[in-house]
Design brief:
Jelly Rolls; six-stranded antiparallel beta sheet; mainly beta
Length: 136
C-alpha cells in the first residue's frame, strides 16, 4: 500500500552535468516515524531514461535532513545508477528497508554526467510503502 501523501514526483535531469533535487517528504517527527523496520519501505521508481548516451550515467541518491535545510546522503542506502546504452537507460524500481536512523525529511538527489546525450523529459518517484514487497 502506498500513501499518496508520502509520495513525491520529480522531473528528472535532462541536461548534461546537472544536479537536481526532489521536493522533500515530511515524515512527521524529528527522527522520522521511528522504528518501523519490517513495516515500511522506501520505493524509488525510475522510468526508462530515453536518450541517455552510451556508458553515460544518472545517479539517484536518497538524502535526509532534520530541519529540511541541511541534507546529507543516507549511508544505509546505496545510490542507484542508471547507465545508458546509447539510446536509453533501463527502468529501475528499488526498495530500501526502513532504517530507524532516518531523519524527518527525505529527498532524492539526481546527478547526470557531462555529455549524457539528449535526454527526453521523464519523471521519477519516491514513495513510502506500507508492508514488505515480495523479493525484497
Amino acid at each position: 500500500m502506498i500513501d499518496q501523501n508520502l509520495t513525491v514526483k520529480k522531473a528528472g535531469p535532462t541536461s548534461s552535468s546537472a544536479t537536481e533535487y526532489s521536493d522533500a517528504l515530511d515524515l512527521g517527527s524529528t527522527y522520522g516515524p521511528g522504528n518501523l523496520a519490517g513495516k515500511l519501505q522506501l520505493k524509488l521508481e525510475i522510468p526508462t531514461i530515453t536518450g541517455l548516451g552510451s556508458a553515460k550515467t544518472t545517479t539517484f541518491t536518497i538524502q535526509d535532513s532534520a530541519d529540511n535545510s541541511s541534507f546529507a546522503d543516507v549511508s544505509a542506502y546505496p545510490s542507484v545508477v542508471v547507465t545508458g546504452d546509447g539510446t536509453s537507460g533501463p527502468a529501475v524500481d528499488t526498495y530500501f528497508e526502513w532504517t530507524q536512523a532516518l531523519r524527518r525529511y527525505i529527498r532524492v538527489k539526481a546527478v547526470t554526467v557531462s555529455s549524457a546525450g539528449t535526454i527526453t523529459a521523464y519523471y521519477y518517484y519516491l514513495k513510502v510503502v506500507l508492508g514488505r514487497q515480495p523479493g525484497v
